[in-house]
Amino acid sequence: MPIAVRHLSHVYMPGTPMAVPSLRDVSFEVADGELVGIIGPTGSGKSTLVQHLNGLIRPRPGTVFVDGQDVGDRRTDLRQLRLKVGLVFQYPEHQLFEETVYDDVAFGPRSMGLEPAEVDRRVRRAMAMMGLDVETLGRRSPFELSGGQRRRVAIAGVLALGCSKLILDEPTAGLDPAGRRELLRLLTRLNREGMTILLVTHDMDDLAEVARRVLVLSEGRLVADAPIRELFGQHRALLQEHHLDVPAAVRILYGLRERGAEVRLDRITVDEVAAEVARWWRSARGASDGRAAVEREGSRAHGHRRDRPRPVRPR
Amino acid sequence: MAIGEIALGQYVPGESFLHRLDPRTKIGLTTGFVALMFMVHTWWGYAAGGLMVAAGIAAGRLSPRWVLRGLRPIVVLILISVVLNAFWTEGRTLWQWGPLRLTAEGLERAGMMGLRLVLLVAGASLLTLTTSPIDLTDALERLLGPLRRIGVPAHELAMMMSIALRFVPTLIEEADRIMKAQMARGAAFDRGNLLARARGLVPLLVPLFVSAFRRADELALAMEARCYRGGQGRTRLRQLHMHPRDWATLALFAAGAVGVAVWL
Fold it and tell me: What angle (nearest 5°) sits at the alpha carbon of residue B163, between those of residues B161 and B30?
């Protein structure tokens, strides 16, 4: 059983007036090779949860098993565990400190006490995984790179440990659109090559691009654990209840559906939504030209408050 | 991680008599109290000091637990000084075990030394428990004001202090985060000998400094964007006023302190 969390709870600053329960009775499992998203509003316990998975926080009460090892057991070697479960914190580029990119990525393997040849092999592999070229970037200072590159260097530093599971806390926060797309592409590729990935994020659009299953946390409770299409396609009300929503593109489908359009809601990425809207458009338009009708509807909707959903039906 | 438990700004908001005293009064009281505790050398003197602290706790409507919490960081220091004094003072031997000799005089001195440290820290924590850091630096700026004439940059010092205080929790949080992040990629902060540990701090300190400089830079920019140009001609939102109760408290304390210093 790769990752199994059972009845995990956590209280911040227990025994003081400031005590806050940040996790309440959370249970779930993650199989090898999955790419799971963890979402939830700020303060819902996402970051606390992932810190349990590599033993930065000892589970109590509750248990966390990683590859059959009990994280809460005092005999478990947490350093060994951390080699298996790579944890990338928010803004990981802030932890870079070496003079060159190469040395920074090599920090983990070196502190494991590996042979220089093995260190070199790992650095090259980790940098390649993050789409970084050792020859051109290796000798440069991490502080000279662009934000997106720095972040990938920091992630490579974690991958160099040789982990089989990677947890990322808000990996795309603060990146420009190109950097974001690039990182998501690399993560998807890693996952295809067998890496188990847990992605903590606020960004539903990011999730729609990569995740297949989503855990929803709210006020420390696991309120949903569902395939992503099911979550976005059927449980929008639940998301909204917890101050979340479906991705922007999916909101278009919901809007069309409210107005009576026959669209499927389980299309989640921008490309899928575009294809679905186009399909609906072609089928609904039928023989006659509906463009004028919709434009009229559009301008009217623009001027009015929407008191009740109006059907949009190309004539 | 113990690093999160460091409490520096231990201010407890409240509306008590002590809270409402002018911060300058409270600084004066604390200074006076500290001086007094170094002057007295009798049990009665320390008893009077204890009474003053108790009065302060009552006037600040504080839970004694909070005051005791302030003692936690110096428990080791107190224990060491008590033990040293108890065993290394010449006098009548009460108990001996090898080279260790407990003397009656040593015991007395140790008790007084321990009591003095406890009272000093408790007295000082009355100030920090009932005065917000902002009030404290305002008061310092005013008290240092007259020294400006001989070139002491009072305003700048006070500003530096408030900024430093403001960023202590931020930096602690940051250090905690970086430490966890480096541990997640194989750093060990608790292994090896002293040298290895010192070297092990590099991955923590470099990012911490980088981030501190970045924050300083951003703060300077933000202050300039709001037209900050130092203390010259600056008016204040929060004015400090000495009320009759301040003078009365100071007078009462002065009378008590002189009495204790002379008779006890």
Answer: 35
